């Protein structure tokens, strides 16, 4: 059984026989996309972990792309009905959109076991454990024989619009140069299966010999990495023409390090 943002009002906190529960089937996976409290946040979905695998994309409460205004939703999508519906219940409806996208991406939507979304965002639950990470959505059942805990909360990030899957990488950059400057550092990944856009690794004071780390959720699984593009900018013209380079760049993929 796959629960797509099971309802919160009248169901959260009720006995197992009233609501969806992992006792309902041999394998129950749940996608939580609108689990903010109904009052005052109008969250339609349940926040409690109730399945064998409970996925909380983007933390499970506010989905990226759902903060657009009603007019842009209507223009972006297939018509006034879907646009209006998405505006009213966008977070809630993301669950089935993630699920339908997952059918086309058997390697996408990796859920990282973690105690909270904040820990996941900070990189504390990276990379996947030895048994791997389950895939949210259609292929979640490939993980059913690996479940050890009674409840497993899983976190991941998605895109703002279709196609929704993202792949998580840890990028560590050690800078080289003669003196510190202010600015930002961007990195793009190139691989056998595709290239990413540029992602910001750090901004502010850039010090040579310092190491900077970022966790990035990219729009393509690049496969085997063949090249990394490094770019820095100090945002304004500096008459001393400072120079910075990358002494080393380390890239780790969340799936297998």
UniProtKB/TrEMBL annotation:
GO terms for cellular component: extracellular space; neuron projection; zymogen granule membrane. Keywords: Cell projection, Cytoplasmic vesicle, Disulfide bond, Hydrolase, Lipid degradation, Lipid metabolism, Secreted. The keyword Cell division does not apply. GO terms for molecular function: galactolipase activity; lipoprotein lipase activity. Its EC number is 3.1.1.26. Pathway: Glycerolipid metabolism; triacylglycerol degradation; Glycolipid metabolism. Its main location: other. PROSITE patterns: PLAT. It is a peripheral membrane protein. The keyword Hydrolase applies. It is found in: Cell projection, Neuron projection; Secreted; Zymogen granule membrane. It holds the Pfam family PLAT. GO terms for biological process: lipid catabolic process. Residues 167-257 form the PLAT domain. It catalyses: 1,2,3-tripropanoylglycerol + H2O = dipropanoylglycerol + propanoate + H(+); a 1,2-diacyl-sn-glycero-3-phosphocholine + H2O = a monoacyl-sn-glycero-3-phosphocholine + a fatty acid + H(+); 1,2-didodecanoyl-3-O-[alpha-D-galactosyl-(1->6)-beta-D-galactosyl]-sn-glycerol + H2O = dodecanoyl-3-O-[alpha-D-galactosyl-(1->6)-beta-D-galactosyl]-sn-glycerol + dodecanoate + H(+); 1,2-dioctanoyl-3-O-beta-D-galactosyl-sn-glycerol + H2O = octanoyl-3-(beta-D-galactosyl)-sn-glycerol + octanoate + H(+). Belongs to the AB hydrolase superfamily. Lipase family. This is Pancreatic lipase-related protein 2.
């Amino acid at each position: 059984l796959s629960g797509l943002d099971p309802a919160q009002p009248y169901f959260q906190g009720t006995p197992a026989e009233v609501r969806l529960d992992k006792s309902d089937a041999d394998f129950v996976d749940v996608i939580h996309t609108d689990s903010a409290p109904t009052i005052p946040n109008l969250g339609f979905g349940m926040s409690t972990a109730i399945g064998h695998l409970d996925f909380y994309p983007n933390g499970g409460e506010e989905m990226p792309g759902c903060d657009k205004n009603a007019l842009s939703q209507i223009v972006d999508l297939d018509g006034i009905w879907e646009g209006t519906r998405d505006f009213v219940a966008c977070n809630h409806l993301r669950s089935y959109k993630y699920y339908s996208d997952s059918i086309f991406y058997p390697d996408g939507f990796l859920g990282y076991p973690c105690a909270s979304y904040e820990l996941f965002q900070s990189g504390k639950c990276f990379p996947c454990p030895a048994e791997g990470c389950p895939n949210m959505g259609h292929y979640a059942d490939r993980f059913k024989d690996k479940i050890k805990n009674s409840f497993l909360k899983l976190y991941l990030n998605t895109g703002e619009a279709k196609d929704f899957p993202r792949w998580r990488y840890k990028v560590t950059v050690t800078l080289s140069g003669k003196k510190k400057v202010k600015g930002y550092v961007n990195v793009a990944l190139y691989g056998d299966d595709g290239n990413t856009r540029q992602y910001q690794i750090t901004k502010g004071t850039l010090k040579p010999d310092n190491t900077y780390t970022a966790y990035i959720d990219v729009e393509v699984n690049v496969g085997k990495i063949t090249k990394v593009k490094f770019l820095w900018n100090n945002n304004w013209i500096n008459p001393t023409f400072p120079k910075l380079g990358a002494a080393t760049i380390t890239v780790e993929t969340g799936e297998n390090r």
